[in-house]
Design brief:
By secondary structure, the protein is an alpha+beta fold. 27% of the residues lie in helices and 18% in strands. Helix 4 (136-143) runs antiparallel to helix 6. The longest helix has 14 residues, at 155-168. It is elongated, with a radius of gyration of 19 Å. The protein starts with 18 loop residues before the first strand and ends in a 5-residue tail after the last helix.
Amino acid sequence: MHGDTPLDESLIPFGDFCYSLLANRPGSIPGEGLYLHGETRCKMYVGSNTTYLSCPHWERTDHGVVLCRFTGKISPDEWDDHAHEKIVAHFGSYEAMYKHPFDGYLYDELKCCGIRTDAIEDLAEEGQIRLDTLPLPFHEVMARWLTFPDAETDATSKMIRALFAHHYRVPTEKVTYTYVMNEIMKSEQPIR
């Protein structure tokens, strides 16, 4: 999944972690799979309350470490009960592993690259983000905010409606959940 990922900054999630968590509105269907960001396959998990979108550069390896392909840094996989044995088998010794670029918190998906560390909500509120830089699962999750009775008065819904209006170059009042979902279907980035 990750080995063929081009080292592209635009694929790195917003925030301090190697993933994005987006709040779901009611009606989300839990499940997991992959979504496409351009030609890159990224892991996605839709829970009952949030949607998790992974950074395609973060990778759990078979040799007891996790790897940030973007920076080349590694960290022992603290969630793998057999990490020590795998590290010794792959690197020759635990000490040899530490000769590689290292970040001790990478196993917990704490970002070591320092790229796009602003929260997506803050950037959108400040008008510093464009929807065409976001993968379609973000669009779909954001569009759900337009389906609820408070969407006309809720500040987040207003901001999301304005982002979509700017993105699709249509009047704000034309932006509805149905309109956005139809536009998403036209651009067809399948979730697998």
